[in-house]
UniProtKB/TrEMBL annotation:
Protein name (database record): RING-type E3 ubiquitin transferase
GO biological process entries: protein import into peroxisome matrix
Domain RING-type residues, every copy: 270-297
GO CC aspect terms: peroxisomal membrane
Naturally occurring in which organism (per UniProt): Oryzias sinensis (Chinese medaka)
Top enzyme category: transferase
Cell compartments where the protein resides: Peroxisome membrane
Membrane topology of the entry: Multi-pass membrane protein
Length: 306
């Protein structure tokens, strides 16, 4: 029977079926570890337990040269870029590396960087418990690097970590949009490994309509993605503008010695910095603040919301 490229609907159904069985395996593994080792150790090693569950599922299926349960459900097979043979063991191992290990390591690194940079900015020193796990070694390595940075460099790195986290999400959404257009690779890991799919059954009459429908969905997804990028860029520019205005007004601050020696009445003080108001600014609720204090406060709230 001639083989034909799998369409988007088949690949999505296959992925959903695999995700279901991987979730069942994760839940069973988490329940077993929590029962045997206790809730405290389970919470500490939960990510590693889920990683081990995913690697076990992929080892028993893809890495062993068999179809996954989702692939068997929709009757599709993996092929290499030549479309003539199944992927080699090296190519399948590369897929497992990118699909399971790389997201785990990237998430660990970004979270650890963010925690250490925020702790150093707040003046707190995070002293994690000694251990031999990857998190402990990664935390020690990041702490050594953060200690070498100046205060300004730490702020820049903290912003870069936030941008990296948002970029990862945007790349996944862009890749999904490309999948809706071409139906080639549903996962970034399969694109990196060069693994695509062929369906065993013959070409069906509704295949063209399915691909057309997903192309329309790709157009909608692309518009949504562009809108999200525009909003994030606008938010970033607004935060930069507020930070520049705060620095400008702070540099223009002039306080005479007489003003310093005489305490200001409580009614003339800013309730944020508890000092005499400088460049008084009124909010819609009627309260008065220093211009630099209220802009910095708004900047902080916008950063947390985004």
């Amino acid at each position: 029977m001639p083989l034909a490229p799998a369409n988007q609907a088949q690949l999505i159904r296959s992925c959903q079926k695999d995700d279901y069985y991987r979730t069942v395996l994760r839940n069973n593994a988490n329940e077993a570890v929590q029962t045997l080792a206790g809730s405290r150790l389970w919470l500490h090693w939960r990510k590693e337990v889920e990683l081990l569950s995913d690697v076990t599922y992929l080892t028993l299926t893809t890495l062993s040269g068999f179809q996954t349960l989702g692939e068997e459900y929709v009757n599709i097979v993996q092929v290499d870029p030549s479309k003539r043979q199944i992927p080699s063991r090296a190519r399948r191992s590369l897929f497992v590396l990118f699909h399971a290990f790389f997201p785990y390591l990237l998430d660990k690194l970004l979270v650890c960087l963010e925690n250490e940079l925020e702790g150093s900015q707040d003046g707190r020193r995070r002293t994690g418990s000694a251990g031999w796990g990857l998190s402990c070694w990664l935390r020690l390595w990041v702490q050594r690097g953060v200690c070498l940075l100046t205060g300004e460099q730490r702020r820049v790195w903290l912003s870069a970590v936030g941008i990296a986290q948002q970029t990862v999400a945007l790349v996944h959404r862009l890749h999904t949009t490309l999948f809706y257009l071409s139906s080639s690779f549903y996962h970034l890991s399969k694109r990196a490994a060069g693994i695509s799919y062929l369906r065993v059954e013959g070409l069906r009459g509704d295949d063209a309509s399915i691909r057309t429908t997903y192309r329309l969905l790709a157009a909608v997804s692309l518009l949504q993605l562009l809108g999200s990028v525009a909003l994030q860029v606008g938010s970033f520019r607004q935060r930069q503008r507020a930070r520049q205005e705060w620095k400008l007004f702070r540099s223009l601050r002039s306080v005479s010695p007489s003003q310093v020696s005489s305490p200001a009445p409580s009614a003339a003080r800013c309730i944020l910095c508890l000092e005499a108001r400088r460049n008084s600014t009124c909010t819609p609720c009627g309260h008065l603040f220093c211009w630099e204090c209220i802009t910095e406060w708004c900047n902080t709230k916008v950063g947390l919301a985004s």
